Amino acid sequence: MPRPLWTGAISFGLVTIPVKVVSATQDHSIHFRQVHLKDLGRVRTRKVCELDGKALSQDEIGKGYELSKEETVPVTDEELDRIPLPTAKAIEIVAFVDADSIDPIRIGDSYFLATDGQVAAKPYTLLRRALERSDKVAVAKFAWHNRERLGLLRVREGAIVLHSMRWPDEIRSPESLAPREVELREDEIERAVQLTDTMALDSIAGFRDAYRDALEELLTAKSEGRELPGPAEGGEREEGKVVDLMAALSASVEAAKESRGEDGGGEATVHEMRPGKKTAPRKAAASGKTTGQKAGGRKTAAAKKTTGTKRTARKQSAS
Fold first, then answer.
1. At how many degrees (to 10) do helices 245-259 and 186-198 cross?
2. Cα separation of 268 and 287, whole Å?
3. If pLDDT is split at 50, 70 and 90, which confidence band does 115 have?
4. How far apart are CA 30 and CA 34, in angstroms?
5. Count of CB atoms within 10 A of residue 249's CB?
6. All residues at 6 or more sequence positions from 195 whose CB lies less than 8 Å from its CB, including other chains
7. Band of the pLDDT at 239, cuts 50, 70, 90?
8. What is the phi-psi region of residue 312: left when phi exceeds 0, alpha when psi lies from -120 to 50, beta otherwise?
9. By C-alpha distance, which of 162, 113, 116 is closest to 137?
10. What is the predicted pLDDT for the residue at 24?
11. What is the largest CA-CA distance in the chain?
12. How far apart are CA 109 and CA 106, in angstroms?
């Protein structure tokens, strides 16, 4: 088991469950060190007092709160531990709610709660079963790293998981970031929904960190003196191009079907539109079907329009 990050107890009404908090995630990122390029010597960060210029060891460093530029109040760990906080050594459950009522943006790091001794086995199992049967999650308060936090308890594969949560006032309003209102045609929305259906998966367990794999390949090649791998093809996108939204959606649906081994029924027509300049559509392989047509041969408004000219698409059989 990983080293416990915190020990305390879950307070569940009048029930107390001794637990140990262990990290539920692992960091597989590749970390670099700062080095002197001339001789690859390590470059370290020194903690220096700005008043006397002396480099300090960790036992010489404490906490202080700056009241003003001229006045700082020192605070010790012992003083913080004596703060009269009910959640100082307890994860106090304060409510049970439906999981869907929790905004995912409020959920932070995740931790497993392990039983601390045999005496915790029965109440731990009791809480786990209650969460499973009620189909709810528990909202709790706990103190950690010198602040009270909000937490969420749920069950995963027989273990209770603690998710740290952000307080409501820690979430910024996205009001100023939302785009202005734009008009969308119903066929554009329908094609976007069709794309989500085509790209739907039952599980995302198969995804891997491709950047980390490529970085490992780069480091292995450098350490072995081999030729470095070249850049990936097709990774760049042209900037400043106005895209025919319907054509892009249609092409995306066909590409998604092809990647899943489905018969797309022909390739889509791709329209390229540049600012201030109209261009004719560029056809891919001949198929008799335009991007404006829906699956099954039905026509949409987009199939009746091209840039600068108007033409009528031929009807196709649904078979």
1. 20
2. 8
3. very high
4. 13
5. 23
6. 249, 252, 253, 256
7. low
8. beta
9. 162
10. 85
11. 85
12. 10
E-strand ranges in 15-172 read 15-23, 63-66, 72-75, 90-97, 107-115, 137-143, 148-156, 159-165
User: Which pairs with CB-CB distance under 8 Å and at least 24 residues apart come from 293-297?
Assistant: 294/187, 294/190, 294/191, 294/194, 295/194, 295/265
Return the structure tokens found at 308.
């600068």
- Cα–Cα distance for residue pair 200/195, rounded to 1 Å: 9
62-94: burial string, b at 16+ Cβ within 10 Å, e else: eeeeeeeeeeeeeeeeeeeeeeeeebeebbbbe
Kindly state the DSSP code that residue 60 receives in the 8-state scheme.
G
Tokens of 96: 């049970």
- Give 107's Cβ-side CA count (13 Å radius): 16
Nearest to 152 by CA among 114, 88, 96: 96
Give the pair of three-digit tokens for residue 62: 């404490």
pTM greater than 0.70 (yes/no): no
d(CA 306, CA 290): 11
For 138, the 3-state DSSP assignment is: strand
Position 201, amino acid = L
CB 43 within 8 A of CB 22: no
Give, for 131, the enclosing helix (H) or strand (E). helix 121-134
Whether 295 contacts 265, CB under 8 Å: yes
Q: What's residue 298's pLDDT?
A: 41
What six digits make up the tokens of 154? 């749920």
Measured between alpha carbons, how far is 53 from 305 in angstroms, rounded to an integer?
A: 73
